[in-house]
Structure formats: C-alpha cells, structure tokens
# Entry
Amino acid sequence: MNDQSVAPAAAEDVAWASINTPLGVEELKSFCRDIERMYRINPLLNFKKWEAVGENRYLFSGQNISQEEPFDFDLELTVEEKPDGFQIHYQGDLRSSTTFTIEAAAADSPGLSTLTITDRYDGVSEEERKKQLHRVDRSIVIWAKYLQQFLYSWKRWSRFRPWRWYMRRVWQPMKPSGRRITYMLLWISVFEVALILLGVVIYYLEYA
# Structure
C-alpha cells in the first residue's frame, strides 16, 4: 500500500489513502461502479439501510465505529462518474465528497492500476469542523487496506461463480462483526477436521 494519510486534523479539509491493485484500469472502474459494495467492504461501517432513490442517488444510514465513541449517520449520496473514476457527494455529512481516482500503475507494472480514495471536508468552516471532530470518518486507511485485500481475492477467485455468489449474497450483507465470527468459525472447523484426520492416521499406523 502506498503512503496514506489519517483523518484530517481540524485545520485540514482532505484525507486520502492510495493502494496498488491487481486490476487493469477499465476492470477497476467496472468494480468501483458498484458503490454499495465499495462501502460494504469498509469494516468500520455497520449498515442499517442502503436504498436507491433515483438515478445515481442513494439513502445510506448506519453506524460508523472508526471513532472511540461510534456515531450514527443518515446520508444522501449522489454518485458522479468521471473520466478517471467516481465522485460521491454527500448531504447530511461532515464530508462534502469522497472521490475514487483510478490511474494506470507505474510503467514497471503494466496492466495494473492504483486507486486513491479522497475524503473532502471543505463544505464546512474550520470552526465547524473543530466542533464536530467526533463525527470525522477515520476509517479511510483501514478501508483502503481492506479494499486492496478484497481486490486481490477478486482477481484470484471471481471467475468462479460459487465464490461470486457467496461474496455477494452471504458475505457482503454481513456486519463486520459477523464476518469476523464466520472467519473464526471456519478456521476452527478446519482445525477440527485436521485433528480428526490426524487421529485417523495415528490409528491406522498403530493398528492397521
């Protein structure tokens, strides 16, 4: 992952994070076009509602757990597609916009791309930002990290229809806590199966 910022201080109006991805530019644009999926990958957002209310307009409510004291949000999003990515404009949020900027990777990485996420807080005054620091979304670096992990998994597994079905129909609607629990249960199950197989092998070696 490239150099990244944290959420902005009171005197700043921008936070950003940039990642390398295994996808080509057009492939990454197609992936990012599913805006709901992009937000659901963020492990610090608990969804309550995501509803389309018009062309490229959505109502989005939930809880942000990136602060020490989580806060609820209820937003209206308008998505604008740009030549180099997408810009999401907010109503009802401290942020004015989030931009996904997609660019070709360096010349020594042909066919790959970079994704930069930029949160802008220039819609309110510095004084107002100071008053509402407890509502600043501090998830951007973690979000970028999880997006990068997801994109590498997507590159490897998305050609398999069962995997795509599971990620969209089962994994994606889960709360982040549910995903963590499912992950732990999966590894516990794998460990239990391994122990059973080990027991079978020992029995076979001892008594067969």
User: Anything to note?
Assistant: The CA atoms of residues 157 and 163 lie 7 Å apart. The two ends are 53 Å apart (CA to CA). Confidence is low (pLDDT under 50) at residues 3-11.
